[in-house]
Structure formats: structure tokens, C-alpha cells
Amino acid sequence: MLTKSNKARQLIEGKLSFPESLTPAERLDRYRKFTRLQQHRLRMAQRAGENGRTVARARAQLVDLLLQHLFESAQAEARRAFPSDQCPLALAAVGGYGRGELAPFSDVDLLFLFDSKSARGDTAPDKSGNPFVDSVVEKTLYPLWDIGFKVGHATRTIRQSVTEARRELKSRTAMLDARLLAGDAPLFGKLQTELDAKGFRRTPAEYIAARLADLAERHSKHGDTVFLQEPNLKSGCGSLRDAQNMLWMARVWFGGEPMTALRSHGWLTDSEARDFERAVDFLWRARNELHTTTGRATEILSLPIQPRIAAALGYPQRELVKRTEAFMRDFYSHSRRIALVTASVGKRLAIECDLVITRSPQGRARAQRTQSKPVKFDGLALRDGTLESDHERFFSEDRRRLATVFLRAQQHRADLGPRLRRMIRDNLARVDNSFRRDPVVAETFLTILRHKGEVARVLRLMHETDFLGKFIPEFGRLTCLVQHEFYHRYTADEHTLVALEVLDRVVDAAEKPHADYKKLFQQLEQPHLLYLALLLHDTGKSESNRGHSELSARNARRAAQRLGLDAESAATLELIVRHHLAMSQLSQRRDLEDPQTVTDMAQLAGNETHLDRLHLLTFADGLALGGNVWNEWKNSLLWQLYEKTRLALRGESAQKQLTCRIESLRQETLTRVTRALPLEEVDAHFELMPQSYFSRVRPDEIAEHLRAVNQFLRQQTHPDPLEGLRPVIHWRHFKPQGHSGVVICTWDRPGLFASIAGSLAVAGLNILSATIYTRADHVAVDSFDVSDAKLGAATNDKSARTVEQALTRACRGEPVDFDAKLAAFRESSPTSPPREEIVPTEIFMNNAASEDRTVIEVQTGDRIGLLYELCRALTALGTNIEFAKISTEKGAAIDTFYVTAGDERGGKITDAKRLETIRRTLHSVLTKPIGASRGER
Prior knowledge:
Layout: H1 6-14, H2 24-47, H3 52-81, E1 89-93, H4 95-98, E2 108-114, H5 131-147, E3 151-156, H6 158-167, H7 169-176, E4 179-183, H8 185-198, H9 204-221, H10 240-254, H11 258-264, H12 270-294, H13 306-312, H14 320-352, E5 355-359, E6 365-369, E7 375-377, E8 380-383, E9 386-388, H15 394-397, H16 401-411, E10 415-416, H17 418-426, H18 433-436, H19 439-449, H20 456-464, H21 467-471, H22 473-476, H23 492-506, H24 518-523, H25 527-536, H26 548-563, H27 567-578, H28 582-589, H29 595-605, H30 608-623, H31 632-650, H32 654-673, H33 679-688, H34 691-694, H35 699-715, E11 728-734, E12 739-747, H36 752-762, E13 766-774, E14 779-787, H37 797-811, H38 818-828, E15 842-846, E16 854-861, H39 866-876, E17 880-889, E18 892-900, H40 912-927
Parallel strand pairs: 2-3, 9-10
Antiparallel strand pairs: 1-2, 1-4, 5-6, 7-8, 8-9, 11-12, 12-14, 13-14, 13-17, 15-16, 16-18, 17-18
Helix pairs in contact: 2-3, 3-5, 3-12, 6-7, 6-8, 9-10, 10-11, 10-14, 12-14, 13-14, 16-19, 16-20, 19-25, 20-23, 23-25, 23-30, 25-27, 26-27, 28-31, 29-31, 30-31, 32-33, 32-35, 36-37, 36-38, 36-39, 39-40
């Protein structure tokens, strides 16, 4: 099937020649065997590295042969059954199948075209009203369905086909690719003539407008970026649909073969056309393999499947992560090429048609005609928000214009036209070392960075034309660099550009969380240093993902020197880049009530201005991770650390601030519980809770804790002493947010945290976060955010009962074999396919982060029961868990434990051998086989 020779085709056709004596069931069995054999040959060719489009076309040829035999056989039967109802009938392929390309599990789209004179009045959809036609349709389709093909079909006359094509863009485009498979050729020819006369050629501009609007809307739906962590091969940005969209528009505009027309009219160079064809072929190879590997028509290149596709495509790297990263970097490079080429052609067509594409806030797009005239200045022409130039020597006369043109785009809030973009790319060789060190060019670049709120768009224009990577080569090495980390949604270059866009939105933000930072950013001086720090903060990842901050700081130092920054500015830039992770790590993983945490942050920042820049950068960097990684909780932690550090740098009393906050919380709490609880219980709670509690909780949370404590203390008067040991468990469900809150109140005791974690685990609940507090009267008040196995709120009553029963037994001192229960739960739980992406297991032991406690930081792949296993191990190792920060992000557990020695002396664990024993034991717990529970908490 992969050869065009007639002999090979005849050989394969011969396998479809069956004796007339075969029964329908026997014929169907022969068809199935034929299809399986040919599909197997295609898979072998695919795995052997055959061209992706060649395989897709061979698969279409296979279906062609099958359909031709089915159609001819069906016609022969219908002629015998309905001799007087015979009429002209043609079978055509439409849509993707019409283009002669099929992925393994793609739909087979068909049009049965019949003579309108044969129709018999009103009929059901997809029925002709003619028994001959309907019989052929049924006898062609049924075997296809029985074999396992997904078929989309329509039965129409020429008039109905033209009407449908004019009514709907999707139908109109599907008819563009219509291809005769079998039947009456003159009838099909009439359809093509009618479509040409009444459809596309009379209104090409309207079709172009509709396609451009559809393109813009689809891009908006898919994130407006090529660089998603889990891209859509068929419909995303830079996908096969983008490539097809360009070819459809070019065919309608020019007529004839689109790629030939685009080259002959100078819209694409030969090298651009070759790169485009290679990119399309790569996506087809990936799509073919994706369908084959998953066994279904999936188009999402998900994280778990990426390593398998990389291996199937023959990437040689031995390490799974490296192999996957190499494959995905190639994917993004090819996808980016498709996106750039199709965007360029689309803009050219918009100019030719005098169209402007606009979008509503909801993402709806429309194309409208424009009548504006160009405004000319400095060798450029501005029209409808687009800069163009027809001056061939524009950059050769003065290469500094390569930087100036972007400043003009910023000043006029303009895009760059396709011709100007081409000219920039053609002149990138002029961006050499002397250009990079030119003080005039450097000042132009820094001027662009000084315009708060208007920087990111211009830097993206620079990146799209490859100027940015040439001018700042440290950033250029991030292009399409895959960040194979669980919390990154984008490639390294796209993440950086999104972070710059986040910072831009802060300057005039009206809504949270951006608005929280507006005043801080508006008052910030020298904004170019912050923008430059964001641009460079991840550049070290091109050399190593581990310890990239130091490498990025070195890159910042080099860039500062080239750009001519003064010594103080260069030092500031280097400091911000070196410590760009500090605030997120300290706020999310450390105890903010530990003075050492604030001292560490104050020492890193050095002064309030540096702290302000780090605060803004941390927010932009965090929000740019995408995928809802940034949330209100992280935002509040960041602000807590910022405020505490700011006070420390000013030398103001943090205790005074906390005292004011506690009194405010007390007053707000009283308004919520006055009628339900006595005043003395509220006062006692505020006296007995540690001060760290009040810096973290909200009034509504305190009220909930008070109700739980009140219920637990009333149980102590019960005549049955066992009733006094029963924990109080309060549930609150947050369905829109996909989690439930659980407050547990009981007597504190060694191993309590492990028992709670075990009880939640055996109920099949994922622990998303946890905070633990113990009052001075030894009443523990612990709060957890949990979700069910489907990552929704834990509303199942059975789960709640399981938690209560297991924890009640544990609190009463009765033996509970959590290990056995957890194993039984994992055994009985429905399993999902193993996740093949790697979340690296890391354990850090830190005795410098706290004055009197050892800090243990754990990062690993998440699973149900993990927190229980960690707490059980720490308890067995003779440590006391004094404080914990638990978080779960995109399949990864990021947990921090503050522990003490657990003996009479308490305090830090300083013995090196004991620390190593703890580390080895925890590593063993984290890396043991977990079978069906992989990927769950």
C-alpha cells in the first residue's frame, strides 16, 4: 500500500476479489482479514520510519479500495432488486478523507451524490427517497461499520450539497476536499462545476474572512499558544488544522495547487515551503503513532503518552525524560513553524481582502472590511494597527532599525505585517556581537522595557521573528525547550513570555489577584530591571534544570554587561535572577511563624526595593505556570512572607502587628459565634492556641474550629469514657473548587497525624493540603483539604463513615492495621493506566531553616496513602512532627515537615548518622512499588 506501482495495487485489489458463492457473513470475514492485514503492514511501515503523510495517504488508499468494492457490489445487488429505480449515483470522499489522508482511527467521511430527479418527496435525513439509492448506501455502510470503521456520511443531490456548502463553513470546507471514489463521474463533475460557480470563486473574500475568524476563535479556545504541555495535534495552535486552514484559503484565493501558488507568488520561499512540509509530515508521524499507541482517535499528546510516542518514533536517548524532552522539543519546533507560516499567509490574505480580525472578550472572532488609508513615516506604513515596509533596503541601510522597528510597534501599539516580518528574518545575520554591544541599540531595547504594561507583546513580536533570541542569545537557547516538570504547562520560552504578560496586566488591573500587586508595580522605579530579570530568570535551564538559578544569574551578568548597565543596576539584576525562586519556596514550604524564615528572606533581599521586585517576579512567575497551579492559598502565603519581611527590613515589631491581627480576628469571630457559643470558650481558644495559628486562619475557619472543639469537650461529660475519645469530624464541601474541607478535633497523642492520614487514605481520599495545631490543653485541631479519586469534592457518605470508623478506633487505642487496609483499598480500586511522566523523588534535610527544628522537604510522585506512609515512618524513627505543610500539584506531592528529636531533650536532630538513616528510610518509602495507586494520593 506504500507504493504507487500499478502492479502492487493490482496485487492488493486481487485480495478483494471474492467468489459470488460466498455468503454475506463470509464476505464480511474476508473484508475484516484484508483490512487487518493491510493495517498491520501500515503499522510496520510507520514503525520503520516511513514518511508520516505517506502512511496517512496509504491508509486512505486502503479505504478507497475497500469502499470501491463495497460500492460496486452494493450497486450490483441494488440493480437486481430495484431495476426500475436505477439512477446516477456517485460516492465521494469528503473532509480529511477527501484530502486522501487518514490517521488510524479517524472518521471516514462520505458523500453519496444522486440525481435529484430520482428523489421522491420529503424523506428522513440522509435518505434519498429512492429505494435503489438507499439500498446502495446501506449495503456500502453496514460492512464498514461491522469492520470497525467510524463513518460520517450524507446522502444529497447536487442542489442540496451546494445549499449546505453555502450555509455552513464546515460543510463548505469539506466540499473543497471532495474526491470521487466510485460511481457516476459526470454527476460528480456537475457538482464541482456548481460549487465553483455558486460557492467559492464568486465570494473568495467572504470565505477567507470566515476561515480567519474560525482560526482566531479556535486559537483562543486552545490557549493562543503552540507551547502547551499537552498539545492538541489536530486542532491546537500550530496543529494540522492550521496547516489545512492555510491550504484551503490559498486554494480558494489562487486556485490550483496551493503550495505551488504560494511559492510562485512569493508568499513562501522554497526553504519555508520545505520546512513547512517537513513540519506537517512530523505531526502526521506523531498523530499516526498516537492513534496506534492509544488504540483510539485521541488527538491530545498527554504527558503519560509522550514517552511511549518518543520511543515508538525511535528517539535514542537512554533516559526516559531525556528521550521525551528531545521528542517534544522537535514537536514544538515543527508546530511553531506551522504556526508562523500559516499566520504569515493569513495576514497576507487579510491585507489582500482588506480585512481586520477582531475578538470579543468572550473569544468570539469576526473579520470585517476596512477602509482606512496607510500613514507613512520613517520608511514604514501604519494601517489598521499593522506596520509594513516596501523599502527593500530598509535594514541594510541602517541595521539599528532592526531594534527601532519594535519600538515603533510599541509606540503605535501595532503589529508587524507579514512582509516586514520576512524582512526582519532575512536580515537577522546583521545581529552580531557588535550589534548586541551597540549602545544605541541597547538603549532602544531598554526603552522598550521601561514602558510598564506594554512590554510583553513587543517581546513576543521579537520572539516570533527570531530577533529576540539573536539579540539576547541566552534567551534564544530556551526556544522550544521542554520543561519536563510536573508543574510547568509551557515550554521555557513560552513560560517566560506568559510571565511577562502577567506583569504587564498588573499595571492597570481591576480584578484579583493582579490588582493586589498594582500599587506596588505602579510605584516601582526602573521597571526595565524587573522585565529584564523575568526575561532571563530561567535561561540557565538551557544548560541544566538543577541549580538553574545560579546559571541564570551568570547569564544576567553577561547580558547586563552587553547592554551597558551601570554596576548597581547589574548587581540588582543578578540578585533578582539568582533568588527568583526564594519567595515561592520559603512561603510555600517553610513555617512563616518561624523567625528564621523571615530572617532568611530579609538577608536574601537586602532592602525593600529588591523585596518589591522579587515579590512581583514571584507572582508573575507563579501565575505563568498555567493549569491553575497558582491559587489563592499560595497568593496569601506570598503576601504573608512579603509583609513580615518588609517589617523586618524596616525594623518594625512583627509582634505588634500580630497582636493587632489577633484582636481583629477575635472581634470578627465573635460576630459569627456569639449566639452559639459562650464568650469564655472563645477567649479560651484564643489564649490556648499558638500565635502561629492566628497568622494563617480566617474568621470563618476559627468559628468552625470553635464549634468542633465545643462538641469534643461536651463529649467528655458522657458517662461512657470511650465516647470522650471519639474524634469530632466536620466536613464542608466545595464542589465548584473540586475539594472538601475536613476539621478533626481530638486529644493530641504521638502518631496522631499518621493515624488521620491513614484514615483518609483507606477511604480513598486524596490529601491536597493539611495544617496541624495543638492547643495548650492538648486538644488537637487539624484541618485538611481532600478530594475523591476523581478529583472532586468528597461527598460520598461511605467515605466519611470509613474515615470516622478508622480514626475512632485509632484514637481509642484499638489496633488498626492501616497498611493492610490501604493494600486492600488499592487492590479493589479501579486502576488507571500508569503515568509514565517522572516526578523526581527528592529529600532535603535542613538544619539552618529553623532555630530549634529540623526541616525535611519531600518531593515525589503522588499516590493515595503517601502522607500516611511518610508520617508513620517519621513516627517510627522517633521524631515528633511539630508542623507540616502539605501540598499536591499536578500529580506531585510537595511536603515539608518540621520535626524534633522526639526524646527528652527535643530540639533539632543534629547527629549526621541519624539524619542519613531518616533520609534513607524516607527514600525507601517513596520509591517502593505502588502498583495501581501510582499517580494518586
